[in-house]
Amino acid sequence: MEFSFNEEERIFQESASEFLKRELRPIARKIDEEKRIPMDFIKKFASQGYLGLLNSPKLGGAGATLKMAAILAEEVGKNDISLATAVFYLLNTAWSYILEKYGKADVVEEIIPRLVRGDAFVGICSTEPQGGSDVASIKTVAKKIDSKYVLEGEKIYISEVREILDNDGGLLTLVKTRPEFKHKGISMIFLPLKKVKNFEVSYLDNMGRMGISTSILRFKGTEVEERYLIGEENRGFYYAMEGFVTARILVAASCIGAAESVLERGMEYIKNRNAFGMPLAKYEGIQFPLVDLYSKLEAIKLLVFKAAWLYDEMRNGRASYREVTKYSAMSKLLAPKLAIEVMEEVMTWLGGYGYTKEAGIEMALRGVLSYYVGAEGAANIMRIIVGRELLGSEFVPYKE
Ligand SMILES: Cc1cc2nc3c(=O)[nH]c(=O)nc-3n(C[C@H](O)[C@H](O)[C@H](O)COP(=O)(O)OP(=O)(O)OC[C@H]3O[C@@H](n4cnc5c(N)ncnc54)[C@H](O)[C@@H]3O)c2cc1C
To answer: Residue 111 belongs to a domain with what CATH number?
Structure first.
């Protein structure tokens, strides 16, 4: 059993930490207030090789492991505790990997090298107004007419649309190509937003992770060339699930990073703040919850890195997809919840200061709540996935 990073991973972590402390941490509040991640930061981030980490070197990517990608997710979460930059990073990392793995060669070559340079972005477009958890019941349809797909339907809570429209790229969009079927009638189509017409966008005003947009998309006869179909028709559900399994590990790592950062800030504060004649850190009423939270954080961090390690084992044929799915879901279930616990507790240590924007805890809390309520999959869905693995699919509370 190996619990340490190898030399390459350690150097990668140190240089990412140094870069992000210098370039990202000072602008985290500005990102939250101005509701965008500055393009000059994205360009610098890309120039470090941090976009397209999982993509192949032949396309300009780093061909890295998911463990490396999780190391970076943790560091990004530590340095922009609003999690906006982490969302941006992990969406592009996980979903560009799916695009490269299953997309047609010309589409992959059109998008990935530009994503690596920070000129084009990729996201996922699955959720619909009638519900996001039950992916198999989506209603958006794509009819094949000559060499095009024509889309009708509505998607909601879609991240990164503004960023794609301001630059370039597209969304891996789930559509029904056989509406009479549930998950076996779903296809995934890459929608290059700047190249397609006949759709409307409106933006939602979220409570957190303000630096990345969230939108509603209405497809009204949106036409897209058939070459943008990802993989095979009616296999889109499976590609999406693979993307979620990948993304959830990175989500969990970024929540751990934000929680670590907040806990460190809290520790600094309690060592320096006196009450009743001595530092807060000396009171067991403060120190014991700190120890409990730190211990849980270490335990869940190990779980998250085990999930990342298993994912890489799976890519090398040494672990099963179902095992990875279970670990990914457990990580996504536990990490956001624990991050919230950390943030709530630290906020109380800081007293009145904890309630100010200057302290920054509210920004972290607003961000991590997005992963608690459901971005990249709601908590009960994670429980359903793990329960299915533990008890067998006959105990899943619904039939597909
Ligand atoms: C900030 C943000 C960004 C997002 N970005 C994207 C994006 O880029 N692309 C995208 O496609 N989606 C995105 N989403 C949507 C997200 O994936 C969905 O919110 C999530 O899948 C849950 O769907 P829902 O909101 O429709 O809730 P519902 O599916 O209606 O679920 C509501 C609640 O019921 C629970 N529930 C549902 N089914 C069961 C069950 N069988 N048993 C027990 N409990 C159940 C859920 O756990 C949840 O708590 C984003 C969401 C947020 C908040």
So the answer is: 1.10.540.10
Q: How confident is the model over 241-270, as a mean pLDDT?
A: 98
Ligand 1 site residues (CB inside 6 A) read: 123-127, 131-133, 157-159, 206, 214, 370, 373-375, 377-381, 397
Q: 366: CA distance to ligand 1 center in Å? A: 17
Cα separation, 24 vs 18, in Å, equals 10
Q: Are residues 295 and 373 in the same domain?
A: yes
What percent of the chain has a predicted confidence (pLDDT) above 90?
A: 96
> Where among 236, 263, 282 does a domain terminate?
236
pLDDT digits (tens, 9 = 90+) for 20-66: 999 999 999 999 999 999 999 999 999 999 999 999 999 999 999 99
Pocket probe for ligand 1: among 157, 173, 204, the residue whose CB has the most ligand atoms within 8 Å is 157
Q: How far apart are CA 169 and CA 187, in angstroms?
A: 19
Residue-number span of the structural domain to which 318 is assigned: 238-395
Which atom of ligand 1 is nearest the CA belonging to 135?
Answer: 21
Average predicted confidence (pLDDT) for the chain: 97
Within-domain flag for 306? yes
In a domain, 369, yes or no: yes
Ligand 1, atom 22, lies closest to the CA of 132
**75 pLDDT tier (thresholds 50, 70, 90):** very high
If asked whether residues 251 and 375 sit together in one domain, one would say yes
Residues 6+ apart with CB under 8 A from 385: 325, 326, 329
Domain boundary at 218, 236, 254, which? 236
- Taking the CA of residue 126 as reference, the ligand 1 atom at the shortest distance is 11
Question: pLDDT tens digits, residue range 273-309?
Answer: 999 999 999 999 999 999 999 999 999 999 999 999 9
pLDDT band at 216 (very low <50, low <70, confident <90, very high): very high
Distance from C-alpha of 112 to C-alpha of 263, rounded to nearest angstrom:
37
For residue 131, how far is its CA from the centre of ligand 1 (angstroms)?
A: 7
Q: Which ligand 1 atom sits closest to the C-alpha of 125? A: 11
